[in-house]
Design brief:
InterPro entries: NADH_Q_OxRdtase_suD, NADH_UbQ_OxRdtase_49kDa_CS, NDH1_su_D/H, NiFe-Hase_large
Shape: flat
Family: Belongs to the complex I 49 kDa subunit family.
Number of helices: 8
Protein name: NADH-quinone oxidoreductase subunit D domain-containing protein
Organism: Flemingia macrophylla
Order of helices and strands: EEEHHHHHHEEHH
Structural class: alpha+beta
CATH topology of the largest domain: Cytochrome-c3 Hydrogenase, chain B
Number of strands: 5
Radius of gyration: 23 Å
Low-confidence stretches: none
Oligomer: single chain
Keywords: NAD, Thylakoid, Translocase, Transport
């Protein structure tokens, strides 16, 4: 007859990150005595770079290039919230054209962020083909590069406006991207959201 016994040894376990593709997220090294946590060592990951500490020694204008590192998939959003605060506090009016360009850039940034979430998500659940479909849409990053000079970490928004106006021909390229991308959205729906295997996995 086997008698089950409980162990009283100290156990050290890792909580997160749950998958290698989840870089930069919080990891906890937890020491357990039975069910009691007796020690915990947090590992913050690579995306946490002490931005608040950096901000303590800089003016808001000096700090603007740093905020794009908060979320490297949607850098326009971090820049927008950083410039919106001083603009509202100082009652600074942003020119109408700059406001429209900001909205367009924020929407493009949102699409880029969603695409770069969807591709690795599909790969993580075992669907490799949609992962490669997502990375076809590089024209979106060409638009960012044409407007800001960088494909990622765009330092484009400024307090009261933008760093520079859009280059000649950028609007036409943006229209071309929309025409192309709307067709691809239908394809994504067929391959992903209407796929019975995907719906069963998720």
């Amino acid at each position: 007859m086997n008698i089950s016994t409980t162990r009283n040894d100290i156990m050290i376990i890792n909580m997160g990150p749950h998958h290698p593709s989840m870089h930069g997220v919080l990891r906890l090294i937890v020491t357990l005595d039975g069910e009691d946590v007796i020690a915990c060592e947090p590992i913050l990951g690579y995306l946490h770079r002490g931005m608040e500490k950096i901000a303590e020694n800089r003016t808001i204008i000096q700090y603007l290039p740093y905020v794009t590192h908060w979320d490297y998939l949607a850098t326009m959003f971090t820049k927008a919230i950083t410039v919106n605060g001083p603009e509202q506090l100082g009652n600074i009016q942003v020119p109408e054209r700059a406001s429209y360009i900001r909205v367009i850039m924020l929407e493009l940034s949102r699409i880029a962020s969603h695409l770069l979430w969807l591709g690795p998500f599909m790969s993580n659940i075992g669907a490799q083909t949609p992962f490669f479909y997502i990375f076809r849409e590089r024209e979106l990053y060409d638009l960012f590069e044409a407007a800001t000079g960088m494909r990622m970490m765009h330092n484009f928004f400024r307090i009261g406006g933008l760093a520079i106006d859009l280059p000649y021909g950028w609007v036409d390229k943006c229209y071309d991207f929309w025409d192309y991308f709307l067709i691809k959205l239908v394809e994504y729906q067929k391959v992903i959201s209407r796929n019975p295997i995907f719906l069963e996995w998720v």
